[in-house]
Specification:
The complex is a heterotrimer of chains A (324), B (501) and C (159). Chain A has two domains: 194 residues, Bordetella uptake gene, domain 1 (D-Maltodextrin-Binding Protein, domain 2, 3-Layer(aba) Sandwich), CATH 3.40.190.150; 100 residues, D-Maltodextrin-Binding Protein, domain 2 (3-Layer(aba) Sandwich). Chain A is built from eleven helices and ten strands. In chain A, strands 1, 2, 3, 4, 5, 6, 7, 8, 9 and 10 form a ten-stranded mixed β-sheet that branches. The relative contact order of chain A is 0.18. Chain B is mainly alpha-helical and 501 residues long. Chain B has one domain. Chain B is 69% helix and 1% strand. In chain B, α3 packs across α9, α6 packs antiparallel against α16 and α18 crosses α19. Chain C is mostly helical and 159 residues long. Chain C has two domains: 67 residues; 82 residues, no CATH class. A two-stranded antiparallel sheet of chain C has the order 1-2. In chain C, β1 and β2 form a beta hairpin. Classes of the chains: A alpha/beta (324), B mainly alpha (501), C mainly alpha (159). The interface between B and C is large, with 53 and 65 residues.
Chain lengths: 324, 501, 159
């Protein structure tokens, strides 16, 4: 909990009155003095945990009750997801979820998860770390098209790194193979830094990863980004075209949002979602998230649910391909 | 000057108040482990890993390395005052150190040991700085193929750590590798040996296993015996006489060189360095008959050598990511827990961290001299705490430490099982070091192999495609062959093998 | 000692054969080199070979003074080892139910009484500091949540 101590903000009782009045139907949620538990299925001190703690601090202000972060790391989040799915659907347990990771654990039979995608009710999206494809600065690939053409000419010869088996960037590469009808040699690393070292050492040709992990190499001019996997241009990557604009509509990166167990009353879900929205509008919260390189993008229950379903279809398709 | 700018960068990190505090804490804990005869350096370092889990990576590594080299200082205190070695590398110091104490020269012996340790540790750190700079240039040469070869080299060191019985060492190596197989495999994410337990999908946590193997098993072994202690000797004046200083100078220089060189050699433990230094001083001395009766050379040489060894052993870890001794393997686990893979690439990726940690070695050695001379009376008092209290408190910390890794009682159970298993295995003289080595290196090797195969799409010849990889593989073959030869005539090393544990 | 070593060797052998059998159900080879079952299988095979060698080594050894070597220490020593292991088993079993503070207090109290006789007031002080004190330290300064009791009545009073 390396960042923890900074975010213990005093709760403002006043705010809860304002909010309670605004959200009719959930008038008694949250009951004053009853703490909300935020389950984070990742280790304390990591980026996911830090982001959740900042948000929890902001939510405390809006809801006027304590929001306690509980780390339950392990099995790529699965231990935390299990705890969320098994908790009481009363809104007092809310959990961090990372797409596509949670969907993989739902859909991959090998993971023997006790929950399915229907065990959860999406609440709100918090941050997006968009996926990118990058090459060394002196690579012959100037555009995404160069890469795709070469991969077509030499099937299974162009090497593309991922930051791990069944991660977001692994699925992005699989999606791209499908959309562009190419075959590449996918090489799985452990995390972004080992993959980036291999890219800079010319051990691999193309890097697939998230925006947050490549910014320093981009700044130093060591790499070139060929495209960003999002519906909109990325504020950190001005001038870089989206994949969609280059003819391959694909979704990539890591999408972090919050869930409650299925069966939680709709007004309670809305209160929580609004609280997340309120917290993310707080300037201090925004500044703190920015400091650790997280790009805020709030989506309400409906918006986040549609991303959730989109990923469900996508992951279901790609899981067999990911196990070659 | 590249080296100079690197060092300045390092010092700017190491001298921030925060990191200075971690270095002091590490030195205090290290000395404490050294002072307490019940716990050795690997056990102690393993026990204290959870304590650093909440720190930022730089602080965590600074503190853990300080614990590691701090143990070498602390061990001297009990050797000299109690004639009981606090840890194996200081065992030889008992011979002349305790004799000096009997003659009322305990203070002088402690001073000579501390100053020798300081010089030895600093010498080895300078060597690390000199080697590390050039190596960072080749960092990018290490891709998956070279990495695989490097891990093979690391695993071949298993033979060097074998101790008395090659069969037993290899058995433990295989057990370590099998433990490393637990969890989702790197090939297609299939669960291996998880017995349907979700907690095992990510594999066994390294920290509770190591706490059990080294920490708990050692406590259980000690609990068998009736432990009692008495501090008799007085420290006396800390200032060595002019003659003692003159006699110590040459042994300190020789000890620095011997310790640093042996530290580089995988499989050599700190005790070998101190034993070698002692016998060398005795041979070179004009008055070998004084040894055993309080000769200051017999303190200065070995104490310098074991500290030079401790810092020297960090050279292969930092530059190649190869742990040369069990304790360094534990340290490597701590690196990995912080998401850092030691090796040349780390210098490239995180220069501030690596150079900060290296600079902290200089700082730490200064802190240790202060801790061990002016503050010596504190350690003498600590020696008077009854064992029952000590053990109960250590066990409580172990429970919290194992629990704290992932907030899970499952890990406490893992620690308990590993500890009891290790306790029983040690009854048959099975060495524990190979388990740690393979537990750490095994998965890294399997992944590097898989990665190489992914790059070549299944063509195995890629493993021999790079000159660097070929050199490393040949080197491993040489190590395996020469260390097997050692076992053909059944001869035993004195003070060697698993002694550090 | 010899007989018990042989028994241990047999256990190792059995363990390694189980590993081999278990890894046989995993894919041995994949399209891109060794599959999930490759290494476990060969490690199991290696371990069984090594256990056999060890068994042979042990059975060839001359039994020198076998009667004097006790595998487990006797009397008090064994009692101390057993109480530490037993206390740890109990704390693993009950920590989630009765919470960290109570279970650790009992744990320390028990160990201090069994391991060595220190003055009663010292026992109480150490046990209190090690349970309630440590809990305070970890939750307040280090921000590590140690388990609270799952019994509502106990959790309500902060245990």
């Amino acid at each position: 909990m390396r960042y923890a101590s900074c975010w213990k903000l005093p709760t403002l009782a006043a705010a809860s009155f304002v909010l309670a009045a605004a959200t009719a139907g959930a008038a008694d949620f949250p009951a004053s003095g009853k703490a909300i538990q935020m389950v984070v299925g990742f280790a304390a001190g990591g980026s996911s945990d830090a982001g959740a703690r900042i948000l929890a601090g902001g939510m405390e202000k809006v809801l006027g009750t304590k929001v306690e972060v509980l780390n339950k790391p392990g099995a790529s989040g699965q231990i935390g997801y299990t705890a969320i799915a098994k908790s009481k659907p009363d809104g007092y347990t809310i959990g961090l979820a990372s797409l596509p990771g949670i969907m993989v654990s739902c859909m991959d039979a090998d993971r023997k998860a006790v929950y399915t995608k229907d065990s959860f009710q999406p609440v709100a999206l918090q941050v997006v770390d968009a996926g990118v494809i990058a090459v060394p600065a002196n690579s012959p690939y100037k555009t995404l098209k160069d890469f795709v053409d070469d991969a077509k000419a030499r099937p299974k010869k162009v090497t593309v790194s991922t930051t791990g088996l069944q991660t977001g960037d692994h699925f992005s590469v699989l999606q791209l193979q499908k959309l562009a009808d190419i075959q590449v040699a996918i090489v799985h690393f452990d995390g972004a830094s080992t993959a980036m070292t291999a890219l800079l050492g010319k051990k691999i040709d193309v890097y697939s990863g998230n925006v947050g992990d490549i910014l320093s190499q981009l700044k130093s001019g060591d790499i070139r980004v060929l495209g960003v996997m999002d519906n909109e241009e990325n504020p950190f990557l001005p001038g870089v075209k989206t994949f969609k604009a280059q003819g391959y509509p694909l979704l990539g990166g890591s999408w972090r949002g919050y869930l409650v167990p299925a069966g939680t009353p709709a007004p309670v879900v809305k209160t929580l979602s609004d609280a997340i929205k309120g917290a993310l509008e707080n300037n201090e919260v925004k500044a703190n998230l920015d400091k650790i390189g997280l790009q805020v993008r709030y989506m309400d229950v409906a918006g986040y649910s549609s991303i959730w379903n989109e990923y469900a279809a996508l992951v279901k398709d790609l899981i067999p391909l990911s196990k070659q | 000057m590249d080296i100079l700018s690197n060092l300045l960068l390092g010092l700017s990190v190491a001298l921030t108040p925060e990191n200075l505090l971690y270095a002091v804490l590490g030195c205090v804990f290290g000395t404490l482990i050294g002072v307490l005869p019940g716990i050795g350096p690997s056990a102690g370092t393993a026990l204290l890993i959870p304590l650093t889990a909440r720190l930022p990576p730089t602080g965590a590594i600074i503190m853990l390395t300080a614990i590691f080299y701090g143990t070498q200082y602390g061990g001297t205190i009990t050797s000299i005052l109690l004639n009981v070695p606090g840890e194996a590398a200081s065992a030889i110091t008992c011979i002349d150190g305790h004799q000096m104490a009997k003659k009322g020269r305990a203070g002088a012996a402690l001073s000579v040991a501390a100053i020798g340790s300081f010089i030895g540790g600093t010498f080895a750190t300078i060597a690390l700085v000199c080697v590390a700079g050039p190596l960072t240039q080749v960092a990018l040469e290490f891709g998956p193929v070279e990495f695989f070869a490097l891990m093979v080299l690391g695993l071949s060191l298993l033979m060097g750590l074998a101790g008395d019985s090659m069969v037993k060492a290899l058995m433990m190596g295989a057990v370590g590798l099998l433990l490393a197989m637990i969890g989702m495999d790197p090939v297609r994410g299939a669960p291996r040996f998880t017995f349907g337990m979700m907690e095992l999908l990510d594999g066994l946590n390294f920290v509770p296993v190591i706490m059990g193997l080294f920490g708990l098993s050692e406590i259980l072994e000690n609990a068998e015996k009736k432990l009692s202690q008495s501090v008799g000797a007085e420290v006396g004046s800390l200032i060595p006489s002019r003659q003692e200083v003159r006699d110590s100078a040459a042994p300190v220089i020789r000890g620095s060189i011997v310790g640093t060189l042996l530290g580089l050699v995988p499989g050599m433990t700190g005790s070998m360095s101190s034993f070698l230094s002692y016998s060398m001083e005795k041979k070179l001395s004009k008055h070998p008959e004084r040894f055993g009766h309080g000769a200051v050379e017999g303190v200065a040489g070995p104490e310098t050598a074991n500290n030079a060894h401790a810092n020297g052993a960090l050279i292969p870890l930092f530059t190649l990511g190869i742990p040369a001794s069990p304790t360094v393997a534990v340290l490597m686990g701590a690196f990995m827990m912080n998401g850092l893979i030691p090796g040349p690439f780390l210098f490239r990726e995180q220069p501030a961290l690596v150079w900060g940690v290296i600079a902290s070695f200089f700082v730490g050695n200064v802190i240790l001299v202060i801790l061990n001379l002016p503050l010596i009376s504190i350690w003498v008092k600590i020696l008077k705490i009854p064992y029952s209290i000590l053990f109960a408190v250590i066990l409580a910390f172990m429970v919290i430490g194992a629990y704290g890794v992932e907030n899970s009682i499952f890990d406490v159970a893992v620690m308990l099982i590993s500890g009891v298993a290790a306790y029983l295995l040690k009854k048959f003289d099975f060495p524990m070091a190979p388990i740690v080595l393979t537990l750490i290196l095994g998965p890294v090797m399997e992944r590097a192999l898989r990665r190489s195969m992914e790059m070549s799409q299944g063509d195995i010849s890629i493993l021999f495609s790079s000159p660097l990889a070929v050199v490393l593989l040949i080197l491993s073959a040489v190590i395996i062959v020469t260390s097997s030869l050692k076992f053909i005539p059944a001869r035993k090393w004195s003070g060697g093998g698993d002694a550090e544990v | 000692m010899k007989r018990i070593s042989l028994l241990a060797g047999a256990l190792f052998l059995a363990f390694s054969l189980v590993v081999c059998a278990a890894s046989w159900s995993m894919d041995y080879y994949s399209s891109l080199g060794p599959g999930p079952g490759f290494f476990p299988f060969w490690l199991g095979a290696l371990l069984s070979l090594l256990s056999l060698i060890w068994i042979v080594q042990v059975s060839l050894e001359k039994g020198e003074g076998d009667g004097d070597v006790h595998f487990l220490s006797d009397g008090d020593g064994l009692l101390r080892v057993a109480s530490i292991v037993g206390a740890l088993v109990l704390i693993v079993a009950f920590m989630d139910t009765i919470g960290f503070q109570l279970s650790m207090f009992a744990f320390l109290l028990f160990l201090l009484i069994v391991l060595g006789r220190v003055k009663p007031w010292l026992t109480i002080v150490v046990a209190t500091a090690g349970s309630f004190g440590l809990n305070y330290m970890f939750t307040t300064w280090l921000d590590v949540q140690l388990p609270a009791s799952s019994i509502t009545a106990l959790a309500a009073i902060g245990l």
